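S.,

As promised, the glutathione run. Input:
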Amino acid sequence: MPELILHHYPLSPFSEKLRVMLGYADLSWQSVITREMPPRPLLEALAGGYRKVPVAQIGADVFCDTRTIASEIASLSGKPELGLEHCSAEVREFAAAADLEVFLACVMVGGTSKITQRVREAMSLPDVLRFAWDRIGIGLRAKVKGVGIRGARPRVLRHLAEVESRLQQDFLFGAQPNHADFSTYHSLWFIRDMGGSSLIDAFPRTLAWMERMKAFGHGKPRSVSAEQALEIARAAEPRAIDPEHRQDTLIGSKVSVTPTDYGQVPTVGILVGATPERWILMREPRDGGRLHVHLPKADFVLKRV
Ligand SMILES: N[C@@H](CCC(=O)N[C@@H](CS)C(=O)NCC(=O)O)C(=O)O
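Predicted complex:
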């Protein structure tokens, strides 16, 4: 089985969600550092338009969105609790709020001078300006408006109070972590570890849980270039799709799949699979090869092209 390749960048909270998950899963993986904003031509060749990060790849199968990637990590590691499809409705609801509303609130709360300094260190001055312009554009075009600047801090504090009261055991839903712990961790990591915020200091159980999460580390990453990752995809065949996942009436049609919340850039391809949780599109990048791109159904819309 080829290793999972993660396309990510250091400051990205959703990438941290998966890096820590890979640590918990104790997996070896390959790491491709991508830019903080488009253009990312080699990643675009793989994911076909999908503009968010992280993206993962196993051979010629490309996985968009941390929910889809987490299911792959769950199967690779034999830890089903990492895949949302194996979690209860309560866990799924908690993770969904943490990954969207709380994340957007934390990004607003996290806009500290320390974050600005980190962004400045990671990029040249022209790129800092492009980055700011890019994120303003994402915000203006977003379909979810979140809680707004004034509502952000109270929303984060309400979330922290909920997390604190949940932590009667070592993890949010019991003695072992599940997907929701990782969904909750990454935004708090962003404001505390990246942004230097002291907001969490008033929540001792949450602080101790963050340390437990951090202690999982990042697994065993090995750096590869984006070119090598693309070559690995070109040299591989996408994995076979179960006949029961080839029953959708649109199988064989050209479709687009687009996020409905923010970063609404479509991925276009031939629909070759549909599971209860995901769409699978076949794409043939210009320079050869055949890829299967897996995108979640939740918070994405599929249209016939
Ligand atoms: N629902 C997505 C959210 C991913 C997301 O919002 N990622 C941020 C970075 S942490 C992003 O893509 N920002 C724009 C960019 O990097 O171009 C997931 O679970 O993967």
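The chain has a mean pLDDT of 96. The two ends are 34 Å apart (CA to CA).

- D.
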